[in-house]
Specification:
The structure is a homodimer of 236-residue chains. With 236 residues, chain A is an alpha+beta fold. The first copy, chain A, is built from eight helices and five strands.
Chain lengths: 236, 236
């Protein structure tokens, strides 16, 4: 295999990045073939991990009884969190569809098991959180791979981890990191739902980049740079 | 743009996933053009984030004085961690090259700022760690995008976050999540270094997948599935 990426290969990669969405609506009932799920999970499994510890597991959930218990937890947590925001944002918040637990044919809980290949894991001693960070990298691989397969993914984080642990029989030392809803979708939105709803704007790239130290800006010619890095992908 | 991915587009994406490596050696001194760095950071900035909070910042570091301070922290932490592992693994551990801080022309510290668009962030109330998880997704986008551009990335986690915060002038409420070394490389290894060195083996996919509950296996025909999802990428 050629080490270098052709223009077409790069375009394929960037298309996945820029057209990936957090999907909560528009799931169809079409089931996902086992081989597609496994292809997606293989991409996840080839994420980087601290000290090559591969500390992730993927629990595939299709049972409606389980999904209903998770959905109940969502509803309870949503109600609780709504109390933390004032009107008129509260009503707007409550109007959003924020999960597709039942609609999506497959749910996947991605977990972190710190005991895997432990206790000494290279690179995890000074910053123990890097174990969890590895699992998040796997989630992002899963998400992007799903997009290339036409499968939408929604990450539901309005949940109780205690409920997840109990319902999925997780051992005490295992932490649920992500609860994902997967399914084919009628469409992928052009922009994130919360951007379209004017809940929050997309930040400019130049506002998240610093030079040498926190808050230190250089003055490169941003207009020129933005012109150069403009992709031909209208989702971007 | 067509919603579906062509075979070529998918192949480009999976090539990035399976040929991405954590790079510590073989950096060349060739500098990275500003537009390539910004293209990579744009991919990072289009990661998913909880409640669209985009809580990341990217600090680009080229100053050798800064790199040397970080390198000192690495050396101190490596010495400390070596005490946690017994011989003969200790000597093997100490023989590995685990960072390219000085060799790589660009270092990037990726940080988490929980105050961005806060305090109420949709989806972050029940599981506050999801803010950090978003930053990790951005790191993975950065890593994959770098690979498509021929740029190697090494994540150095044998570091003191206190030193990072002091050296980079991070405010108290901001957390360093990843310290990355970027540069063009002579080659990307076919397998992870720690796999090649027989430090740890790659787990089989079937050993990280459960069904419905923790530790519950189904018995799909794994040989058949592995045949179906075999890619034409020999790195995989």
């Amino acid at each position: 295999m050629n080490e270098e990426f052709s223009k077409e290969e790069k375009d394929g990669f960037y298309k996945a990045v820029f057209s990936r969405r957090d999907v909560r609506s528009h799931f169809t009932s079409r089931s996902i073939d086992e081989e597609i799920i496994m292809k997606i999970l293989k991409a996840a499994h080839h994420a980087p991990s601290v000290g090559f510890s591969q500390p992730w597991n993927f629990i595939l959930i299709k049972d409606n009884k389980t999904k209903k218990k998770i959905k109940e937890s969502f509803e309870k947590e949503r109600e609780h969190s709504a109390k933390l925001v004032e009107e008129p944002r509260r009503s707007k918040y409550l109007s959003f569809k924020l999960e597709g637990i039942i609609d999506a044919p497959v749910n996947i809980c991605v977990t972190y098991d710190p005991s895997k290949f432990g206790p000494f894991v290279i690179g995890r001693t000074a910053i123990p959180e890097t174990g969890v960070y590895s699992v998040c990298c796997a989630v992002q691989n899963l998400w992007l791979a799903s997009r290339t397969e036409g499968v939408g993914v929604g990450w539901v984080s309005i949940l109780s981890n205690d409920v997840l642990k109990r319902v999925l029989d997780l051992p005490e030392h295992v932490t649920p990191i992500a609860y994902l809803c997967l399914g084919y979708v009628e469409q992928f939105a052009k922009k994130p739902d919360l951007e379209t709803a004017r809940w929050l704007p997309r930040l400019d790239l130049k506002d998240v980049v610093y030079y040498e130290k926190w808050n230190q800006k250089q003055n490169p010619d941003w207009n020129k740079i933005e012109e150069l890095i403009r992709t031909n992908i209208d989702y971007a």
